[in-house]
């Protein structure tokens, strides 16, 4: 792995992979420290019992090994406690590589002619342990290839060089064997690194795909909500349109019939609305409608349903109403708030409401009948000057 370089603050996929590789390197380091310490202790015990003449060198080597291992352990713990180590990723990477190199040197010393015994069996023991340590370093250091090579080269080369300088055919064979093993480990480092990198990349790509799918699902749900809103609500005032009005009115009639309660429909038409449109423009007319609807919502209960059937025609469904007088009070209040002057961009205008009222079950027991009765009552009001309300029974 090439060492990370300082790039744009925006973290792209390649940078995420580099960060993840270094994180994996640090997270799995402790297990390697433990295994390495066990192997080093075994060698120290062997030297204590079988190489007592070189015990001082063994103690110096073991002390050096422990010192390097403790420094690396401190480095790993510091990295793991750091909240955002990726901000200094190159530094963390170099520090680990230096630690791996020093550790490799400590293992190279044990395979050097300095401590290498003359007994073939004992040499084989050290060679096996060293080969095991080097083989175990491959998966531990493979996330960062330079760290793996920084450990492997100083750990194995002294042993290979030591065998080369020994004039014996068996050592020549061992040299060839170790060289082949060294080449295999180097190849394995690159192969393992690529597998880890591909796995991390696939994970990030899957995460991105899941995020895109989640975002697409959210957008689809939002689009469905908007489509449903557009299909059932007036695009200007955002109150129920004719389609939703009919659905709501049918449901209200069924509820009133089941609970044996009265239900009122107020059918409104705005007097002088056309004059406002003609004189001040359609934008002014739209603004006027928005103000009228807002005023209606302010005086009505939450359960009362305002709808726009088209143009300046509005309806109000009054459920759970106590009596006819309560309906009349609401109608009177509607007339009052609508005839209050309305300030538009360039002028104050005044419109009025003609309201026709039908009552379930007095005027009918189905939607079409009640709507027709209220419509007729509304036109009765308009024909008699507007700015008023009328029940069908008064006609």
Structure description:
By secondary structure, the chain is of the alpha+beta class. It is built from 12 helices and 7 strands. A 5-stranded mixed β-sheet has the order 2-3-1-6-7, sandwiched between helices. It has a two-stranded antiparallel sheet with strand order 4-5. Strand 6 (352-360), helix 12 and strand 7 form a beta-alpha-beta unit. Helix 4 packs parallel to helix 6 (145-164) and helix 5 packs parallel to helix 7. It is rod-shaped, with a radius of gyration of 44 Å. It starts with 12 loop residues before the first helix and ends with a strand.
Q: Short description, anyone?
A:
By secondary structure, the chain is of the alpha+beta class.
Uncertain parts: 4-9
Number of helices: 12
Q: Work out the helicity level.
A: 55-70%
Structural class: alpha+beta
Rg? 44 Å
Report the portion of residues in β strands.
5-15%
End-to-end Cα distance: 91 Å
How would you sum up the global shape? rod-shaped
């Amino acid at each position: 792995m090439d060492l990370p370089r300082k790039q744009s603050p925006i973290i792209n996929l390649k940078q995420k992979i580099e960060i993840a590789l270094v994180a994996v390197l640090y997270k799995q380091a402790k297990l390697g420290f433990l295994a390495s310490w066990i192997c080093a202790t075994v060698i120290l015990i062997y030297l204590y019992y079988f190489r007592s003449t070189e015990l001082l060198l063994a103690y110096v080597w073991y002390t050096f090994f422990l010192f390097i291992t403790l420094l690396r352990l401190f480095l790993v713990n510091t990295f793991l406690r750091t909240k955002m180590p990726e901000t200094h990723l190159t530094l963390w990477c170099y520090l680990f590589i230096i630690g791996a190199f020093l550790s490799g040197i400590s293992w190279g010393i044990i395979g050097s002619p300095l401590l290498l015994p003359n007994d073939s069996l004992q040499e084989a023991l050290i060679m096996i342990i060293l080969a095991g340590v080097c083989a175990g370093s491959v998966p531990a250091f493979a996330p960062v290839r330079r760290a793996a090579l920084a450990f492997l080269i100083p750990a194995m080369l002294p042993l290979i060089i030591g065998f080369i300088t020994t004039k014996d055919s068996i050592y020549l064979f061992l040299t060839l064997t170790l060289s082949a093993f060294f080449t295999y480990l180097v190849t394995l480092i690159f192969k393992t690194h690529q597998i880890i990198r591909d796995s991390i990349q696939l994970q990030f790509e899957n995460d991105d795909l899941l995020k895109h799918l989640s975002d697409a699902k959210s957008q689809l749900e939002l689009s469905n909500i908007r489509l449903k809103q557009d299909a059932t609500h007036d695009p200007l005032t955002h109150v129920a349109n004719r389609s939703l009005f009919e659905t709501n009115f049918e449901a209200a009639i069924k509820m009133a019939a089941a609970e044996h309660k009265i239900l009122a429909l107020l059918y409104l038409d705005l007097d002088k609305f056309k004059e406002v449109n003609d004189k001040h423009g359609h934008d002014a007319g739209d603004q006027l409608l928005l103000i009228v609807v807002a005023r209606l919502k302010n005086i009505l209960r939450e359960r009362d349903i305002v709808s726009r059937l088209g143009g300046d025609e509005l309806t109000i469904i009054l459920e759970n109403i106590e009596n006819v007088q309560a309906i009349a009070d609401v109608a009177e209040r509607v007339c009052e708030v609508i005839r209050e002057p309305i300030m538009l961009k360039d002028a104050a205008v005044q419109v009025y409401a003609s309201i026709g009222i039908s009552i379930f079950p007095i005027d009918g027991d189905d939607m079409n009948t009640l709507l027709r009765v209220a419509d007729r009552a509304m036109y009765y009001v308009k024909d008699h000057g507007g700015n008023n309300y009328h029940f069908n029974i008064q006609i």
